[in-house]
Design brief:
Number of strands: 14
Bound molecules: nicotinamide-adenine-dinucleotide
Largest sheet: 8 strands, mixed
Strand content: 5-15%
Helix content: 40-55%
Number of helices: 18
Shape: globular
Oligomer: single chain
Strand order of the largest sheet: 3-2-1-4-5-6-7-8
Length: 464
């Protein structure tokens, strides 16, 4: 079996960038080219100053420093990279459809389809095409059909190799994956293609952790993994509401149930709600697929995970309003954090956007501090919701690059992202600068409530 020496990845985003950087680092004999149509993104990946990379991930700079220019390249020349590669990863975005059939639930596959068409047009030799993007089950069939429209007589073998990294810990997740999943056709050629991809990962992942399946199981497993993870968050968040009504403490309940090895302790942290580009999108996709197959009960079951998540975000914003005597009109509210979780600059579907939106709708002046998100991103996130004009959003949201200024004269502070640095703020100083009574709403349960109460704060924690 010939060894792979040239890989191309279409899509230089949060998945394509870090995954390919790690493959290049671990496989110095393979040339890895990551291509994108977004020139700004590629320029940022090629920046000399590694602090300006388009994706913030702990440890990523180091990997880029070692591999970039050696066997890792970022380019906008998509055709050249496709032509030269033996394996082509498709890692483009697959957002929820915003138009037509399946609007609001189905995955929009137009970017994946464009990639398949481009590969079909450009390829002059046999290729292994790998679905790295998260895709609805049976997408490989469509990709294969499009590839076969190629007028060049070349063979395409389609594999599914979904990505399980979590933003914020992407590099560690890629170095020490719980598992690598590879699905392919169970034909001779399919098995050979699977083996070639296995051989790449085997450079640093032990063979027992590389699980090969049929292609449909692989595609579906990614959606199911995200659905199960999000379900745990919604489950504990639903219980947080019950705790608040009964004086039970959600942290204690989570610890108590997590000690049962059948339940396990991970992913049981109650919060203001999950965000990120994947959980909601992938569950909605699952909901849509189930409904399309006439499995209404299955579809309804998973939809509840999203409903509870929306409920949790709304509940938090309403809690702030209620505690401020029923009105936030003209009041300064400070949000600490805008990213959907710590250690990432990704803000897609962040709870912050929805909470800010609701508070602004009720007349609040929002001030935000986030160590990794800039003003432009915050405003464009709000604009994307389309609740009001850009000018109104600009008037209602103030970006602060200094947390103490963000908190000064504030009527309430809400912790939205669990950034570690928030825990070591000078809370005494913040207390002195706020409007009375000084209120903190800890949407992540990360602050030391006792010491804040000792200072004089009124603290609201989730589920207590
Ligand atoms: N972000 C995550 O944590 C994560 C984790 C696992 C899986 N996924 C999945 O991986 C896929 C990519 O996610 P992401 O977060 O990296 O998205 P992203 O939006 O950060 O990146 C996608 C990139 O693809 C580029 N692109 C789109 N069409 C293109 C084309 N025809 N040619 C060249 N480039 C093109 C875009 O310009 C963009 O830069 C999605 O399907 C997502 O569900 C994401």
């Amino acid at each position: 079996m010939s060894k792979i020496s040239n890989i191309c990845c279409i899509g230089a985003g949060y998945v394509g960038g870090p995954t390919m950087a790690v493959i290049a680092l671990k496989c110095p004999d393979i040339k890895v080219t990551v291509v994108d149509i977004n020139q700004d993104r590629i320029n940022a990946w090629n920046e000399d100053n590694l602090d300006n990379l388009p994706v913030y991930e702990p440890g990523l700079n180091d990997v880029i420093k070692k591999a970039r220019g050696r066997n890792l390249f970022f380019s906008t020349n998509v055709d050249k990279a496709i032509d030269e590669a033996e394996i082509i990863f498709i890692a483009v975005n697959t957002p929820t459809k915003t138009y037509g059939e399946g609007k609001g639930q189905a995955a929009d596959l137009k970017y994946v389809e464009l990639c398949a068409r481009q590969i079909a047009k450009v390829a002059k030799s046999d290729k292994i095409v790998v679905e790295k993007s998260t895709l609805p089950v049976r997408t490989a069939e469509a990709v294969q059909t499009i590839l076969e429209t190629s007028s060049n007589s070349v063979h395409f073998e389609v594999l599914s190799n979904p990505e399980f990294l979590a933003e914020g810990t992407a590099i560690q997740d890629l170095f020490k994956s719980d598992r690598v999943l590879i699905g392919g056709e169970q034909t001779q050629k399919g098995k050979e293609a699977i083996e070639k991809l296995v051989a790449i990962y085997a450079n640093w992942i032990s063979k027992e952790k590389i699980y090969t399946t049929n292609i449909w199981s692989s595609e579906l497993s990614k959606l199911v993994a995200n659905a199960f993870l999000a379900q745990r968050i919604s489950s504990i968040n639903s219980i947080s509401a019950l705790c608040e009504a009964t004086e039970a403490n959600v942290n204690e309940v989570a610890t108590a149930i997590g000690m049962d090895s059948r339940i396990g302790s991970k992913f049981l942290k109650s919060s203001v709600g999950f965000g990120g580009s994947c959980f909601q999108k992938d569950i909605l996709n699952l909901v849509y697929i189930a409904k399309s197959l006439g499995l209404d009960e299955v579809s309804e079951y998973w939809l509840q995970v999203i409903k509870i998540n929306n409920y949790q975000k709304e509940r938090f914003a309403k809690k702030i309003m209620k505690s401020l005597y029923g009105t936030v009109s003209g009041k300064k509210i400070t949000l600490l954090g805008w990213a959907f979780k710590k250690d990432t600059n990704d803000t897609r579907e962040s709870a912050a956007i929805y909470i800010a939106d609701l508070l602004i709708e009720n007349g609040a002046d929002i001030f935000v501090y986030d160590p990794k998100v800039n003003k432009h991103q915050m405003l464009s996130d709000l604009d994307y919701l389309n609740s009001r004009s850009s000018a109104e959003n600009k008037n209602s949201l103030t970006y602060c690059d200094e947390p103490y200024i963000a908190c000064q004269d504030s009527h309430a502070i809400a912790v939205i992202t669990e950034w570690d640095e928030f825990k070591s703020f000078d809370w005494e100083r913040i207390y002195q600068s706020m409007m009375k009574p000084e209120k903190v709403f800890d949407g992540r349960n990360i602050l030391d409530v006792k010491s804040l109460e000792k200072i004089g704060f009124e603290v609201y924690s989730i589920g207590k």
